[in-house]
Automatic annotation (TrEMBL):
Residues 6-57 form the DUF397 domain. It comes from Streptomyces pristinaespiralis (strain ATCC 25486 / DSM 40338 / CBS 914.69 / JCM 4507 / KCC S-0507 / NBRC 13074 / NRRL 2958 / 5647). It comes from the Bacteria. The lineage of its organism: Bacteria, Bacillati, Actinomycetota, Actinomycetes, Kitasatosporales. InterPro entries: DUF397. This is DUF397 domain-containing protein.
Length: 61
């Protein structure tokens, strides 16, 4: 699956003003992350376990 075919959604960790948006798309094997305000934004792809660990850590702050 190419990253253009993914279903992207705004992360709940993004700001509500709309100008600081992190988008996430998931597949069974990978979580894709990108910055929506940067055209041709590089994407980060991590395992679901790594993403879970990351958001769990971020939620502690």
């Amino acid at each position: 699956m190419s990253t253009t075919e993914l279903a992207w959604f705004k992360s709940s960790y993004s700001g509500s003003s709309g100008d600081s948006c992190v988008e996430v798309a998931t597949t069974p094997a990978t979580v894709h992350v990108r910055d929506s305000k940067v055209e041709q934004s590089p994407e980060l792809a991590v395992s679901p376990a790594s993403w879970t660990s990351f958001v769990s850590y971020a939620a502690q702050d």
